[in-house]
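Lab notebook: predicted structure, single chain.

Context: the supervisor wants predicted structures on file for every construct in the current expression panel, including those that have not yet been purified. This is the next one on the list. No modifications to the sequence; it matches the entry in the shared construct table.
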Amino acid sequence: MAGEQEEKRLSLLQRTLDLVERVGNRVPHPVLIFLALILLVIGLSHALYLTGAEVNYDVINPETHKIERATTAARSLLTADGVRNMVTGLVPNFMGFSAIGLLIVAMLGVGVAEESGLINVLIRTLVAVSPGWALTYILAFVGILSSIASDAGYVVLIPLAGAAYASLGRHPLAGIALGFAAVAGAFNVNMLIKPLDAVMTEITNDAIHMVDPSRSIDLMAGFWFSLASVPFLVIVIALVTDRLIAPRLGAYAGESEGPPAGAVRTPAETRGLVYAGLGFLAVLLLFGVLSLPDAAPLRNPETGALIGNSPLMNGLIVPIMLVFLVMGVAFGVGAGTIKTPTEVISAMIKAVSGLGGTIVLFLVISQFIAYFNYSNIPTLMAIRMAEGLKSANVDTLWLLLGFIVVVTALNIVFTPAIAKWAIFAPVFVPLFITLGVDPAAVLSAYRVGDSPTNTLTPLNAYFALVVGFARQYDTKAGVGTIVALMLPYAVAMSVLWAGLFAVWYLLGLPWGLH
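Prediction complete. Output recorded below exactly as produced.
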């Protein structure tokens, strides 16, 4: 009886997700969607401008770390200034869209590694040495840790997860969904210190000093909760993949570009892996020399710090690109798949030329985000939601959980983590301090709310890229496909992670090192 009820529940969930996918895929091409959203923002910005919508609030300037009293009013894109902004900003908006630069740079290295056959062999090796049940957990763990390299995980880990699944005969879209959930849905936590952590810690301290100038937190203030969150989220992501996503997708009937599972390495491939390993050590040695000595150029020139806000961490995409490039070339030379420098250049060109559709979409997305931010609509929404939550007469834990819900909802339309925290920190950190809450708990709550819905919003700069990855295996895949795949992850991660936060708070466990 219980088994029948479970089957009915899963069947209802699958029918619901199928409906979400069908509806989502009936919408026009993503470029047309964002063009429509641009028109909507233009109209809404003018309507708010005519009504005189504005908010007054305290905000932390991330550059000066000072509390500033700010007034933000709706700005119309139909005024003379707004029209000038749209006309003159088209190219700067696109050039300032960091996702496109990171994508192209990363693909220069990844393209060579893929064309040489290195990625094919590495996936086969990973599959061969990993028990079948463990691969999902390994990919989820690596995906979460990939946030140490900023956005590189989107470009590297997600397609690799799809290829790894395909090599086992599993549906590659399940691998892509797994990779996206790990990279984006858990982006704000890690077992290591990231550049993002340094900025958010400084903003938190500035908010703390509004009520207690003698008090501060450091980079390790939320370490224990973050450390516990990583394996917790790995389990959540893996269970959603194995219990919901993979069964819904079923067997993969298409042709896979992935390597055959269990294929034996040839002597040439083995020699190529040895060469690739030597190439990896060479890159590691190079950046060790550039970063480990006390006066190394990749350390913070003012503080000498290597972890956190340093040239190494802020430019981590460069060593990542070089690792793939050097290893790819070395493998190609060893395995005999690359014989001339021209072949290396051709591999780079092939990788970048495949991004044509993505670049067009990024052009439109960059304009939408720029217009949306220019209108000040995100700030108006954030302040109104913050004021509503602040005025709620509820217990401290429920207020913290309400804060998580507000951040989660707002993240659908206002994705930049630092910009949101710069607005929320001056409102909520002092409030919770007066209620006796550790500021590290407030920052941890923000991390919980800010990550899971990264997988659902098309405003995520890499959402369109994930749609492109999915279309490599299913030409009919669209926005609805990805939303339907990611909805179970977003719901499960949001609810269960908030539950972990609540248990942590009730048990009075330390949030980090002090």
